[in-house]
Amino acid sequence: MKLVTLKKRRDFVLSNKHGQKTHNKNFILQEYCNPNISDQGLMFGFTATKRIGNAVKRNRAKRRMRALISSLLKEDNILFKEKYSYVLIAKQSILKASFFEMHNQLKQCLSRL
Fold first, then answer.
1. Which of 40, 55, 109, 111 would be 4's cystine partner, CB 3.0–4.6 Å?
2. What is the CATH T-level fold of the domain 9-112, as seen in this structure?
3. Between the CA of residue 15 and those of 32, 55, 57, what are the distances in Å?
4. How far is C-alpha 69 from the geometric centre of its chain's CA atoms?
Protein backbone atom coordinates (compact mmCIF):
# COMPACT_ATOMS: atom_id res chain seq x y z
CA MET A 1 0.00 0.00 0.00
CA LYS A 2 1.34 3.42 -1.00
CA LEU A 3 1.80 5.98 1.75
CA VAL A 4 -0.54 8.91 0.98
CA THR A 5 0.31 12.02 2.99
CA LEU A 6 -1.66 15.07 4.07
CA LYS A 7 -0.48 18.23 2.35
CA LYS A 8 -2.94 21.01 3.18
CA ARG A 9 -2.89 22.96 6.42
CA ARG A 10 -6.67 22.67 6.76
CA ASP A 11 -6.36 18.86 6.98
CA PHE A 12 -3.90 19.16 9.86
CA VAL A 13 -6.13 21.73 11.60
CA LEU A 14 -9.23 19.52 11.21
CA SER A 15 -7.36 16.61 12.72
CA ASN A 16 -6.24 18.76 15.64
CA LYS A 17 -9.69 20.28 16.32
CA HIS A 18 -11.99 17.33 15.79
CA GLY A 19 -9.81 14.25 16.05
CA GLN A 20 -8.93 11.95 18.92
CA LYS A 21 -5.47 12.29 20.42
CA THR A 22 -3.11 10.08 22.35
CA HIS A 23 0.55 10.49 23.16
CA ASN A 24 3.64 8.80 24.50
CA LYS A 25 7.25 9.71 25.14
CA ASN A 26 8.25 10.13 21.49
CA PHE A 27 5.24 11.47 19.60
CA ILE A 28 1.59 12.53 19.63
CA LEU A 29 -0.87 10.61 17.46
CA GLN A 30 -4.05 12.26 16.18
CA GLU A 31 -6.81 10.30 14.47
CA TYR A 32 -9.61 11.93 12.48
CA CYS A 33 -12.48 10.38 10.52
CA ASN A 34 -12.14 12.20 7.22
CA PRO A 35 -15.25 11.93 4.99
CA ASN A 36 -13.39 13.68 2.13
CA ILE A 37 -11.09 10.71 1.57
CA SER A 38 -12.37 9.02 -1.55
CA ASP A 39 -10.10 6.40 -3.05
CA GLN A 40 -6.98 6.67 -0.86
CA GLY A 41 -8.56 5.07 2.21
CA LEU A 42 -5.83 6.18 4.62
CA MET A 43 -3.87 9.41 4.84
CA PHE A 44 -0.95 10.30 7.08
CA GLY A 45 0.57 13.58 8.17
CA PHE A 46 3.96 14.12 9.80
CA THR A 47 4.92 17.19 11.79
CA ALA A 48 8.12 18.21 13.52
CA THR A 49 8.19 21.69 15.04
CA LYS A 50 11.20 23.92 15.61
CA ARG A 51 11.32 22.67 19.19
CA ILE A 52 12.86 19.48 17.79
CA GLY A 53 15.88 21.34 16.47
CA ASN A 54 17.26 22.62 13.20
CA ALA A 55 16.02 21.53 9.77
CA VAL A 56 18.30 18.49 9.67
CA LYS A 57 16.87 17.14 12.94
CA ARG A 58 13.28 17.91 11.95
CA ASN A 59 13.70 16.11 8.62
CA ARG A 60 15.29 13.13 10.36
CA ALA A 61 12.34 12.93 12.77
CA LYS A 62 9.87 13.01 9.87
CA ARG A 63 11.83 10.35 7.96
CA ARG A 64 11.79 8.10 11.02
CA MET A 65 8.02 8.53 11.43
CA ARG A 66 7.41 7.80 7.73
CA ALA A 67 9.53 4.64 7.96
CA LEU A 68 7.61 3.61 11.06
CA ILE A 69 4.23 3.97 9.35
CA SER A 70 5.48 2.20 6.21
CA SER A 71 6.70 -0.77 8.22
CA LEU A 72 3.39 -1.00 10.09
CA LEU A 73 1.41 -0.84 6.84
CA LYS A 74 3.45 -3.70 5.39
CA GLU A 75 3.24 -5.79 8.54
CA ASP A 76 -0.24 -5.21 9.93
CA ASN A 77 -2.65 -2.99 8.01
CA ILE A 78 -5.56 -3.94 10.29
CA LEU A 79 -4.38 -1.49 12.98
CA PHE A 80 -5.52 1.45 10.84
CA LYS A 81 -9.16 2.32 10.17
CA GLU A 82 -10.42 3.00 6.64
CA LYS A 83 -11.36 6.60 5.73
CA TYR A 84 -9.23 7.99 8.57
CA SER A 85 -6.42 10.52 8.66
CA TYR A 86 -3.56 10.04 11.09
CA VAL A 87 -1.15 12.77 12.13
CA LEU A 88 2.10 12.04 13.95
CA ILE A 89 3.71 14.97 15.79
CA ALA A 90 7.31 14.41 16.83
CA LYS A 91 8.66 15.11 20.30
CA GLN A 92 12.30 15.86 21.12
CA SER A 93 13.05 12.33 22.35
CA ILE A 94 12.21 10.75 18.98
CA LEU A 95 15.72 11.52 17.75
CA LYS A 96 17.30 9.18 20.30
CA ALA A 97 14.64 6.46 20.49
CA SER A 98 15.22 3.06 18.93
CA PHE A 99 13.04 1.98 16.04
CA PHE A 100 11.80 -1.04 18.01
CA GLU A 101 10.72 1.21 20.91
CA MET A 102 8.85 3.59 18.58
CA HIS A 103 7.22 0.64 16.80
CA ASN A 104 5.82 -0.73 20.07
CA GLN A 105 4.69 2.70 21.24
CA LEU A 106 2.82 3.37 18.00
CA LYS A 107 1.02 0.02 18.25
CA GLN A 108 -0.02 0.90 21.83
CA CYS A 109 -1.28 4.33 20.72
CA LEU A 110 -3.30 2.81 17.88
CA SER A 111 -4.90 0.30 20.22
CA ARG A 112 -5.90 3.13 22.61
CA LEU A 113 -7.77 5.03 19.88
1. 40
2. Ribosomal Protein S5; domain 2 (3.30.230)
3. 5, 24, 24
4. 7
